[in-house]
Task: inverse folding
């Protein structure tokens, strides 16, 4: 009897232990799947686009053939009315209200690379966000300067703009959406990060803890507004065929105090540029987003080593 009792005891102990192992494994798998659904990775390597500060003004208005007149505007899929300055005589568009968000003055940035990983666990602004993100990018300046930008921390919930906890997935932004800025066309962002970054030039830290914004979006503006027929958005095939990762770094702190970024880059207006707006759109690779295929978007044969 004692032997049978011991055998049954060991048997039940073994079954209980096995059940605990199975349950623990199920929990781990569930957590991994849940995390994978909320974690997105994106990268790009190749040649990027560098935006200078715009130089248009009263003496150098926006081209009428491309952007029309206040009475008959054109190019609304490129620059919304909200970002246009009307000339003093009211007959032309003299320039842009916000030249950092969008500029017609551009050049190429060689040896550009960006890699990011973002986890979206907090849906709205919060002082105790569970969101996480890592981002690092390197790129050349117009004269061969070597820049590096590293995400230091996510934006807190007390800014005067919606940060969605610092990380946001799958949302219409900009344009007429009320999210972001109305001075660039509306786009569908598969991921966006708002936070504060450190900036390096030629290996030296030149600016610390300044505002940075990184987004992986559909490279087809005007997915929302009534002028989308003039844009690149394809209603018959709405899913992205091209992606773009763009990064904007502003010279401001969390309390909106100006903090100079001494880039040493002189723009077409003869002034030193104190911000970055870089568009990465070559060899874009993404994973972890349910709307996107895990493939290479806009593949290029030649990439920097």
Result:
């Amino acid at each position: 009897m004692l032997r049978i009792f011991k055998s049954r005891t060991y048997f039940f102990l073994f079954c209980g232990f096995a059940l605990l192992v199975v349950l623990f494994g199920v929990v781990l798998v569930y957590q991994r799947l849940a995390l994978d659904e909320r974690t997105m990775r994106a990268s790009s390597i190749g040649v990027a686009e560098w935006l200078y500060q715009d130089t248009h003004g009263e003496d150098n208005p926006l081209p009428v053939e491309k952007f029309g007149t206040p009475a008959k505007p054109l190019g609304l899929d490129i620059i919304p009315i909200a970002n246009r300055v009307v000339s003093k005589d009211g007959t032309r568009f003299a320039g842009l209200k916000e030249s950092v968000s969008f500029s017609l003055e551009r050049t190429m940035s060689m040896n550009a690379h960006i890699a990011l990983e973002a986890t979206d666990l907090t849906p709205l602004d919060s002082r105790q966000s569970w969101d996480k993100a890592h981002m690092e990018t390197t790129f050349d300046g117009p004269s061969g300067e070597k820049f590096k930008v590293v995400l230091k921390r996510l934006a807190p919930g007390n800014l005067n703009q919606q940060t969605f906890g610092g990380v946001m997935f799958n949302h219409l932004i900009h344009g007429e959406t009320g999210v972001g800025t109305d001075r660039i066309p509306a786009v569908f962002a598969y991921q966006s990060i708002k936070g504060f970054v450190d900036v390096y030039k030629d290996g030296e830290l030149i600016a610390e803890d300044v505002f940075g914004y990184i987004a992986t979006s559909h490279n087809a503006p005007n997915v929302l507004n009534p002028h989308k027929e003039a844009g690149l958005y394809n209603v018959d095939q709405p899913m992205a065929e091209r992606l773009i990762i763009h990064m904007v770094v502003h010279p401001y702190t969390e309390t909106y105090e100006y903090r100079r970024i001494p880039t040493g880059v002189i723009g077409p207006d003869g002034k030193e540029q104190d911000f970055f707006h870089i568009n990465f759109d070559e060899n874009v690779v993404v994973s972890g987003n349910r709307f996107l295929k895990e493939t290479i978007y806009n593949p290029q044969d030649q990439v920097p080593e």
Summary: The helical segments are 2-38, 64-67. The first strand starts at residue 39 and ends at 51. The chain has two domains: 41-53+105-297, 55-98.
